[in-house]
């Protein structure tokens, strides 16, 4: 291991002089600089960003903190990450992914090393220990997501209210009024406080109440298997259902598979609308899912911008909420026959069809 | 921005003394140390890993270099990454993900900053510019994958030969001899040299030749849409096919969907075997895919171990090839009727069944 002392000895200067040069704290003559640089080269001592970072406190590296062990890194996440990385690259920053847990412990350790200029936080919880860790460390950061108490935090997020409103309106316009939401599983301790699930469910309750429709919600984790089970529950508990909204993307694939397995035609017998997903996942379902498209590319870019503006001392990016937009697919149509809340169940309608 | 000079002024010592303390290059008295540390605290100057790294050249951070813009970060990748992160954590290292391109340009920039102790390389190409970049930088590294010229490189990889042998044998044991491989698309410039695709195709050519079967390969990129198109090509070009092997996991979902769309029963009319995937993706198909399970958890861990042994000066990890193992599903069965290469096509058999 080559130290500054070794460099100083080889260059025939004092350690302080090497330090002055590396940290740019005091001018050194061109001749001395050349001697020190030659010594560093000879000894394989890289005069690198570590040294410069020590002086400037800037590495031009930013991290996206993503709790990869708690949250599946799926197609949608990938869009947030790659768009954030591209946005960083355009501004001459490097974005790296930190797979740190939700509790903030590993985040604190990494921040303590001072190697990044700032952090973009993903998969934000309503009360998020990572926000406190970031504040205490003095590290600039931006949220893709929202805590309950935002208190001036720089953030961008999905507009869950507008997304759910548009989704329910779309189904209403097709004539559906027997709806079920297959939501997230808020009983899962990893997700009980997970913003997107809590906010979507709240929005759904509000929106269907405004239409004077019953609130029917079935919890479901984000796997295909869980989606199949949830579809079965819908058929048993709410047989009158003509349209299902599914919050999670892999669950949505399971809902379609499960309904088809039990002999239901989609959308002939029952419509399915995926609330947050991306075209590539939607294409995995057969028929292809009608969906509200997750604005991952927009939010990855905006979240990075929100952070970089802080780092560059520019005007702060105002908080932005971006709705998921309706994206055509083949799983939504009108209900097969007119029905009322108290009227004929869809089971009868399906029999009449087959 | 607080500099060493500010700290020195506030502590009433020379910059050199601050440097001696931070870089551990010369002893300072306890009283001086206390004064400097108090000054750093007062000024918010973190005596952090940047300083220590400058002295010790060690950060205990390792990076997984993953070309996220070229390669989809899917379910399988996620397994490699999280198992690698867990393996690192157990040894008190942090693993971060670097979404650097295949050409090595951004990798070189990041390495030049000297912030990581080593690199695990993912999605390795047969001739991989990133290997040269890593060698030139003097950074320890290990490959999850293999270049053609390994030349003592520390590496672990999928055993593609054993995987393809087992897969073809499984289909042969079910009585199939009209096989097609839906492979990767080696004409795509991003993938022309991509190890897993080249090696799988080579292995397939060798294995089916050893069974004296015709070599039938259809190129296909890794998307559901491409898989649907490839399934249609199989039906047109090789209507006698009774079993399809699919290299890529999202393509495999498309193959199943495409075959079903054209009225084929799986596995009644045609069997599908996914060559490299994980249970969660397999569950998205209906019926659930029979597969060779990608050994992501094993390889993520082994790749990290291979690197950490270098960093810790332990005995090198011997190169290891891990086969994907057969994992039961519901897309493989015997062909519907006995047939010979020149015999009745499967179209007739399917008609007889429906």
TrEMBL record, chains A, B:
InterPro entries: HTH_LacI (IPR000843), LacI/GalR-like_sensor (IPR046335), Lambda_DNA-bd_dom_sf (IPR010982), Peripla_BP_I (IPR028082). Pfam families: LacI, Peripla_BP_3. This is LacI family transcriptional regulator. Residues 2-56 form the HTH lacI-type domain. Keywords: DNA-binding, Transcription, Transcription regulation. It comes from the Bacteria. It comes from Kribbella soli. Residues 333-343 have a biased composition (Low complexity). GO terms for molecular function: DNA-binding transcription factor activity; transcription cis-regulatory region binding. Residues 313-354 are annotated as: Disordered.
